Amino acid sequence: MTRLIVAAGGGGDAVAAAMLDAALYGGDDSPAMILTYAWDRLLIDPVPGPRGPENFTGLHPLTQSVWTVPADAKPIAPAGSTLPRLAAELPHTFALIDPMHGAEGITRQLEELIEHLAPDSIDLLDVGGDILAKGDEPTLRSPLGDALTLAACCQVNAPVRLLVAGPGLDGELPAGLLASRMGPPTLTLTAEHVEPISSVLEWHPSEATAMLAATARGVRGLCEVRDAGLPVPLTDSGPAIHEADLDDVLNRNELARAILATETLAEAEQYSREICGYSEIDYERNKASWLGSQPEQKLDPEAALRQLDQFEAQARDRGITHTTFRRITEALGLDGKQRQDLRALLLSSRPEQYEAPLWRIQPGSE
């Protein structure tokens, strides 16, 4: 059986796709091919926006427009990418979405893959559900990648099933808003489904997929994420996977409809500015410029633990029960280079607060 899973927004969606493959299809001897962006947060990739094939060495050509990312592929500095390490640790084949030629280019990639693989199933997976957006929701922050993959999937001559995992867990559209935009749960993830990606969760920076895994393991509470400190409820609906009608979603998603015929990423990005009022790549450009102007930080263990105590006290006052290592890193004023060192410090000094893969805020003394 040959399966293709399109990770709608890249990043953690690719990790969730591997978990979905095991959960839905049993993790048989022929793992799915996962088509995904190389689009990581600035903690990993300091270059704004997604990477194309020209930003890697060691990719393998699969079709005229599609390249796979093997374990020994390397992003060309200063770019960074989690994909080679994913390829090293997971049995799946990762193929690279190249958005530089707009929705038409991604459609061409999909058509070539479908002809080459003749897959038995094609799933488009989004963690959090912002792919279900209209485009004017005030909490929407990263619509472009999802809109591009949605536009492409709607144009191929093959059935594509749209799946939303963990509605609301990306900190964008709340789960209550999404309820009417998708069907009932088709599957609820469990701790057993998380096991195949458990080692990846120890280092991958995705917050949404970390919370998806945590809720599947039974974690409940209120998790603070991102540099903005967004509160995300961890509830019984967190580990659910829902199906949504692809055509209905396209009809609602104004950005996806507008970019159907785009031939460049810049063109799609301009539509995002016009329809949504912003481009997340502009946000990354501004943040990268600010980060580049900051002095390099060194991790002082004693100072970091003191700062953590202050952060946790303030988080408790906000009703927060959990957070991510990315959130702690940025809240303490450290950069991506210190994230893993900070994580190791916290796990060695306060292991009782690790509720994998999240950090549990220590309750205050009465």
Explain what you see:
The strands form four sheets. The chain has a seven-stranded mixed sheet, sandwiched between helices. It is globular, with a radius of gyration of 20 Å. By secondary structure, it is α/β, with parallel strands linked by helices. The longest helix is centred in the last third of the chain and has 17 residues, at 301-317. The mean pLDDT is 95. It has 15 helices and 16 strands. A hairpin with a 2-residue loop joins strand 15 and strand 16. The protein has helices at 12-25, 83-89, 102-117, 144-153, 175-178, 191-194, 198-201, 207-216, 246-252, 254-258, 265-276, 280-292, 301-317, 325-331, 339-349; strands at residues 3-7, 33-36, 56-57, 60-61, 67-68, 74-75, 93-96, 121-127, 161-165, 185-188, 221-225, 230-234, 240-244, 322-323, 354-355, 358-360. Helix content is 39%, strand content 16%.
Topology, please?
Elements (H helix, E strand, L loop, with lengths): L2 E5 L4 H14 L7 E4 L19 E2 L2 E2 L5 E2 L5 E2 L7 H7 L3 E4 L5 H16 L3 E7 L16 H10 L7 E5 L9 H4 L6 E4 L2 H4 L3 H4 L5 H10 L4 E5 L4 E5 L5 E5 L1 H7 L1 H5 L6 H12 L3 H13 L8 H17 L4 E2 L1 H7 L7 H11 L4 E2 L2 E3 L6
Parallel strand pairs: 1-2, 1-8, 2-7, 8-9, 11-14
Antiparallel strand pairs: 3-6, 4-5, 9-13, 10-13, 11-12, 14-16, 15-16
How would you sum up the global shape? globular
Number of strands: 16
Strand-pairing-aware structural class: alpha/beta
Major beta sheet, strand line-up: 7-2-1-8-9-13-10
- Kindly estimate the percentage of residues that lie in beta strands according to DSSP: 15-25%
> Gap between N and C termini, in Å?
57 Å
Helix content: 25-40%
Number of helices: 15
Overall pLDDT metric: 95
Instruction: Specify the biggest β-sheet.
Output: 7 strands, mixed
> Any idea what the radius of gyration is?
20 Å
List the uncertain runs.
none
